[in-house]
Amino acid sequence: MVGFARFQTTRSKRRCDLVYIYNITVVHRSSIIDHGSWIMDHVTFWWVQAEAIAGTVAPQFTGITVLESEPKELVMEMEMQWDGNPNIVLDIKTRVGVALPIQVKNIGFTGVFRLIFKPLVDEIPCFGAVCYSLREKRNLDFTLKVIGGDISAVPGVSTALEDTIRDAIEDSITWPVRKIVPIIPGDYSYLEVKAVGVLEVKLIEAQELTNKDVIGKSDPFAQIFVRPLRAKTKTSKVIDNDINPIWNEHFEFEVEDELTQHLTVRIYDDEGIQAAELIGCAQIPISELVPGKIKDVWLKLVKDLHVQRDRKNRGQVHVELLYCPLSSESIFSSSFDPDFRLTSLEKALKQVSEDAGGRDHSSTSSSTTPPPSYTKKDIIFRGVLSVTIMSAENLPATDLMGKSDPFVVLTMRKSEQKCKTRVLNDTLNPIWNQTFDFVVEDGLHELLIMEVYDHDTFGKDKMGRCLLTLTRCILEGEFTESLDIQGTKSGKLNMHLKWTSQTIIKD
């Protein structure tokens, strides 16, 4: 009873402190509360250096959900709505040294916060620390005003401030990032967010994009991210005047929580000096990827990821994905281990290079293992790609008699090597069984393009195309594949690929 009474007294005192804190400025706050107090460290919001008053409207929690969790922890999600009237003053320093007081007011926020109580202990209040994070930001609106002036009179300030404030919020508390509030003294560094893997993304192409230009065609580019932060968003190059663009670009992203994070792809039409116009977006959960296995997928583009009412065809984007977890061996290995900083993909590629080096260079070197500091970025995967075009099925009829005269043109995009099969007359299911060899100087960045044509006396008509990266071929050595022919209503192209490696190290 004595212990319970002491706990209730302490709890009541902390509540009184909280109420008082909300009605004083940050400057006064720091002089009243000890800097070692958890209230001082964690009740201060993202406007730490602002002269802030939270206002008179309290946030409302509209729903609480208890989630399944690991032993010795409790996870809750709380839906919060806040139409607040705070008075926040930001002291903005310009390059010329002039202070510009900006008032932030009329905040409207709707979102979901995640609370993690961990570890669960026998000591009251039964948990050692609380982690809080913004699980989902549904809406965030606020008004900016220059004290004693009009913010619109200063070009670019309003937009820059809004972007900065939003980025600060998302970077500091958006899931999987979390703030840790110690309740019982102890070391809780293990609760901090850490990378658990690397997501390898190859942006290959897009098909049938919506044309946003009145004259000509769209100039598409892609923005790709796992965490929606400007600093962690990757942007592709712009492909001019093409609604079926080919990028063949490679990106890497850190993954902190493979169970809840997604890969998001947004396709825009570049408008020059004007703001880019969104063509469509797509998303895929990282949890759908099998670790260490390549996933080649077409993602349908939609207008809004959260509102699935749009049935308009906006095109689709073709990506190759590979999720590589950071193994326990890599995390706890000695720094003397040559594979200490390699992902599972890099280890597989390194093993390929070692095997190839042992076969091809045994007479010139006693060891072909790359130095420990080398990763796949330092290795050029050179070799010979053997492509056997076996057959095609259900090709569209292009002649008046309901037949076609198909042939296939093979192109290596980076090296511009070309080969083509023979023409087979009057068939929709041709069988070629022709093999072509390509000398590849950089396998990880090369792209094989296979275009199917109908032969005519005075030219040729394109039926469609298939694109294939060499990543899987490098990892597996050889395989047989059947690909849908893009750009046609029907049709498949059957092929066999074999990779003979001759790996070298970049100078």
TrEMBL record:
In this chain, composition skew of type Basic and acidic residues spans: 353-362
Q: Which SMART domains match?
A: C2
InterPro entries of this UniProt entry? Answer: C2_dom (IPR000008), C2_domain_sf (IPR035892), SMP_LBD (IPR031468), Synaptotagmin_plant (IPR045050), Synaptotagmin_SMP (IPR039010)
Give the main location. membrane
Where's the C2 domain? Answer: 180-299, 364-483
Keyword ATP-binding on entry: no
- Pfam families named in the record: C2, SMP_LBD
* Annotated compartments: Membrane
GO BP, sorted A to Z: lipid transport
Chain segments carrying region Disordered:
353-375
Which residue numbers delimit the SMP-LTD domain? Answer: 1-184
UniProtKB keywords: Calcium, Lipid transport, Lipid-binding, Membrane, Metal-binding, Repeat, Transmembrane, Transmembrane helix, Transport
Select a single GO molecular function from the record's annotations and give it.
metal ion binding
Q: Which GO terms describe its cellular component?
A: endoplasmic reticulum; membrane
Query: Can the keyword Amino-acid biosynthesis be found in this entry's annotation?
Result: no
Membrane spanning stretches: none
Topological category with respect to the lipid bilayer: Single-pass membrane protein
Where on the tree of life does the source sit, at the highest rank?
Answer: Eukaryota
Question: What family is this?
Answer: Belongs to the synaptotagmin family.
User: What's the protein here called?
Assistant: Synaptotagmin-4
- Provenance organism: Sesamum radiatum
